[in-house]
Amino acid sequence: MIAAEQKSPEQVDSPDYSPAELEQRRATSRRLAWVLGVTALGIYLAGFLYYRP
Amino acid sequence: MSTAPSIDHGTSHGHHVEPYQGGVLRWLTTTNHKDIGTMYMTFALIMFFVGGAMILAVRAELFQPGLQLMQPEFFNQLIGVHALVMIFAALMPAATGFANWQIPLMIGAPDMALPRINNWGFWLLPPAALLLTLPFILALFGIGDGAVNTGWTLYAPLSVQGGMGVDFAIFSIHILGVSSILGSINIIVTIFNLRAPGMTMMKLPLFAWGWLITAFLLIATIPVLAGAVTMLLTDRHFGTQFFNAAGGGDPILFQHLFWFFGHPEVYILLLPIWGLIPHVVSTFSRKPIYGYKAQVYSFIAIGVLSVIVWAHHFFTAGLPVPALLYFMYSTMFISLPLAVLFFCWVATMWRGAMSFETPMLFAQGFIVLFGMAGLTGLVLADVAADAQYHHSYFVVAHFHYALFAGGIMGVMTGVYYWLPKWTGHMFSETLGKWHFWLTVVSFNLTFMPQFFLGLAGMPRRIPDYALQFVEFNAISTVGAFILGFSQLIFAYNVWKCVKGGTKATDKVWEGTEGLEWNLSSPPPHHSWEVQPVIK
Amino acid sequence: MKILRRFCLWAGISFLGLLLAVVPSLARADYSWNFPRPVTPIARDTLEIHNHFMIVITVLFLVVFGIMVYSMLKHRKSVGHQPARFTGPTGTVQWLWALVPFAILLFIDYILMGIPAYHAVLDMEDTRTKADMVLKVTGMQWKWQYEYPESGIKYLSTTSTPRDQITNKEAKGEHYLLEVDNPVVLPVGKKVRVLLTSTDVIHTWWVPQFGVKRDAIPGFLRETWLKIEEPGIYRGQCAELCGKDHGFMPVVVHAVPENEYLAWVDQKKTQLAAAAVGSDKTWSKDELLAAGKDIYAKQCAACHQPEGQGLAPVFPALAGSKIVTGPLLSAEGKLLKDSHVDRVLNGKEGTAMQAFKNTLTDAELAAVITFERNSFGNKKGDLIQPAQIKSLR
Fold first, then answer.
1. What is the band of C1 on the pLDDT scale with cuts at 50, 70, 90?
2. What share of chain B is helix, strand, coil (3-state, %, to 5)?
3. Which of B3, B25, B75, C81 is surrounded by the most beta carbons within 10 Å?
4. Number of domains in chain B
5. Total number of domains constituting chain C
6. Cis ω on the peptide bond leading into residue B522 (within 30° of 0)?
């Protein structure tokens, strides 16, 4: 678990993210957000499409 | 016993960046997770007192048999709105406030993944709260007959019959639901995408794991609630017959839909708490968290199980025998992963070096009292015995042990634990201890008698009662008033701490572990602008 | 301080011991601490299950809490205990410590409690085997209607606690809120199959001493059963929020030896027949008004208020109401839609105004309609005969 294994964070060696990587991250975030939102909406709408046999 | 001053020096990074506008506009437009977290917590605290005031009025009426203070119609409104406020406007926003403040700090992210959605998620709440409580005020002017009076469960056909208060509640629930979904999407995306390099999922702090499961549960079940109340709206105004037998529908359909959401909802309320308790217990035991993996798997198991046990909320509605047996046994099964959690909490304490500052007091109180909730829940799962417990005060006592001792006290644990980090000041330990002891004693005084009231045969949601219920009701009311007023100590302590106090170090408490304790107290407005690397 | 610590430990142990000694007495069915005395096989079964379960969870609680308290006393910084670093079980013994409680819980859940629970459920749901008679219970806002289909009896059971007791103007009687005008009467020792339904919203019929609670759902028929083993008077309440008088619709059951039950059935039949006879004779205005006043107080005043002033906006006022002071019948003597008679007989869809033609006799309907048209300042002067109501059904 994090408390046992983690040392204090190293700042010195970590480079900033490149613009390309940042854009990649933003794109992934956006896509996942849409997937989750559409899923929620889909569950809501599915209720109106189902009829008792 | 006191918080030993930290010997590490925190590494506070980045110069302090001021928010670019001040005043009201800052709070309206902020996309900063700390600001938004603060707004969620403030909103939750205010609504906690609103909901509390409502139920004190109810308990005042129940102090003695007979109708003294209000008519049954108003009583029915108070109990329902109390529940909706406490669940949707106090507990859930408080948990979301924790998520906003803590998740980016804990995973080394500069902010939540979707900052603007974060802002919208919060600002949907005040209008929703207004919609819920507005009918009370309108009724004072003779418009409509008050707020929703069906209890928070909105069962049809009573809710189809009800006045405009039901419509207000339906719209409010829709808005609250959207807010929760937006928040959940944000949390999932943040946890999946913005973890600092080196933080694998199995190094994710337990609080984040708790919220991850919660967020998935919300996305799966809030739409079902929204569907159910939409169907209720159309039954009320647009001639549909979903819940009307005469039209080919079934009132029990509403119960199935509502509780399909309703049962996961109680775990939605509790999972964030179960996520933060191990952090607190570990800190004040000065010992690493026991059974991290076991707890993660338990969260997942409870999350999955929570979606398949809903009908235990209506065992007396006339379900077929196979359904009764299935729901009974599946409900009982949840006791197993829950037992794992309890085991791990106690094992974390075991052979530690404990001290009992206020956060630890609340954490211990939580473990004991929530344990009672869980055990009485096991008993409720028994279908045959449930015939006596269902819709009686036994259930009321059970869920208050779960949601007050579990939910609210869990929130207070987290607030006391993290408030010094957020504000940079220590709160008054003396006031904290007074708050704790008054709360625990008066809480038990309020709700323990209610178990016995239920066993003796007192139903729920009645404004007046027979004479054999007099003594325990009186005790319960006394306890409730002490409990309610004790919370003012908490509000005062928090407010005082925000304003000032002994300077808090980065580590705040002696035994803290985790990324957020490497930031200053308070952290800079923009933290982790350069992400740390986790080894 | 060593002495203090030892004292605390001993105090804790004695307290636990005291609790354990008290638990068995809690398990006995003493009224205020446990279920009321059971008088049916289901209630006895339920009480036993409940007591076993209570003992089990109390033991679980004390064991876990005991371990916690011990740890809080011994493993604290202020007594100098050094913290360990373990994060999981290592070695066989520790794995056993972790897994055995789990196994015990599984055993408790599915064997110790799970097996009796299974039998109890099957028993509770077996409404048809060897049933001796049927009682049909209909929930209504805010009263119960009881029907004995095999005997042809049907009547309403309304709370009989005086309003003045509720509003604290009078001292409360012994059975405050648990008394009715027409209780259920059932024979002792016979299996009664109870059918339940409702005319409006969901109600729940509950008598704690019977261990029976079942929802009454509009448009559906639910069932449960009971076999009362001892004569006596048993009281319960509605157990599902059903509107403003949810707390004021009690259930009262008189359980009597079979011969007394049969005698009561005959007596009730005669009584109801006498009331129904009224629909063939011609009533005077005074007779209608007197009877109507009584019925109004019992059936209508809860919503429309004692002086007919109503409770705006949900319950309309009858005083000066357009409907009440409107025409009685059409020119041909037929039912006028949305008229006073229509409302009382057929209710109003989507509101709490129910169709009283299902629950009141012709005479009662004629009386209350006449009363309303001639009271609260209404001076229609007309009246309606039970025979006319009968023809409108």
1. low
2. 70, 0, 30
3. B75
4. 1
5. 3
6. yes
State how far the Cα of A19 lies from the Cα of B508, in Å rounded to an integer. Answer: 36
pLDDT of residue A13: 47
> Residues B466, B472, B474, B477: what is their CA dihedral angle, to the nearest 10 degrees?
-120
Of B113, B205, B223, the CB nearest to A40: B223
Output DSSP code: residue C32: G
Q: Report d(CA C43, CA B275) in Å as an integer.
A: 41
Structural domain range at position B93: 25-530
- In A, which residues are within 8 Å of B220 by CB distance? 43
Q: Let me know how long chain A is.
A: 53
pLDDT digits (tens, 9 = 90+) for B395-449: 999 999 999 999 999 999 999 999 999 999 999 999 999 999 999 999 999 999 9
Taking alpha carbons only, the member of B525, B272, B294, B284 closest to residue B407 is: B272
* A3: closest CA of chain C, how far (Å): 10
Establish if B13 belongs to a structural domain: no
| DSSP string computed for chain A | -HHHH--PPB-SSPPPPPHHHHHHHHHHHHHHHHHHHHHHHHHHHHHHH----
Hunting for tokens 């997770």 — which residue is that? B33
We report the CATH number of the domain holding residue C310 as: 1.10.760.10
Q: What is the pLDDT of residues C256-304, one digit of tens each?
A: 999 999 999 999 998 888 777 767 788 888 888 998 998 898 888 888 9
- The residue in chain B having the minimum alpha-carbon distance to the alpha carbon of residue C81 is B353
Q: Are B165 and B237 in contact (CB under 8 A)?
A: no
| Residue C214 and residue C197 share a domain | yes
| Within-domain flag for C226 | yes
ipTM: 0.91
The length of chain B in residues reads 535
Residue B423 lies in a domain: yes
β-bridge pairing C191-198 and C143-148: unpaired
Q: Label residue C20 by pLDDT band (50, 70, 90).
A: low
A to C CB pairs, distance under 8 Å: 3
C271 within a domain of the structure (yes/no): no
Within-domain flag for C266:
no
Q: Which tokens hold the place of C129?
A: 């085997």
**In this structure, is residue C273 part of a structural domain?**
no
Please state the length of chain C.
393
Residue B221 belongs to a domain with what CATH number?
1.20.210.10
Looking at this protein, which amino acid is placed at residue B299?
A: F
Is B8 part of any domain? no
Residue B188 pLDDT class (50, 70, 90 cuts):
very high
Is C100 found in the same domain as C59?
A: yes
Choose from B106, B180, B185 for mutation: most chain A CBs within 10 A: B185
C69 and C157 housed in the same domain: no
Same domain, C28 and C110: yes
Query: In this complex, which of C98, C172, C211 lies closest to B467 when CB atoms are compared?
Result: C172
- Residue C326 gets the label, from left (phi > 0), alpha (psi -120 to 50) or beta, of beta
Domain that holds residue C338: 285-392
List of chain C residues whose C-beta atoms are within 8 Å of the C-beta of residue A1? 87
Q: Which of C117, C204, C241 lies at the smallest CB-CB distance from B382?
A: C117
- Residues in C touching B147 (Cβ below 8 Å): none
Q: CB within 8 A of C361, min separation 6: which ones?
A: C275, C276, C278, C279, C386
Query: Does an H or E element contain C161, and which?
Result: none
Residue of C nearest to A1 (CA): C87
The pTM of this model reads 0.89
Would you say residue B247 has pLDDT above 80?
A: yes
d(CA B208, CA B195): 11
Residues C244 and C296 occupy one common structural domain: no
Does a structural domain hold residue B18?
Answer: no
pLDDT, residue B283, reads 96
pLDDT tens track for C145-178: 999 999 999 999 999 999 999 999 999 999 999 9
Quote the tokens at residue C97: 């410590």
Name the average pLDDT for chain B. 93
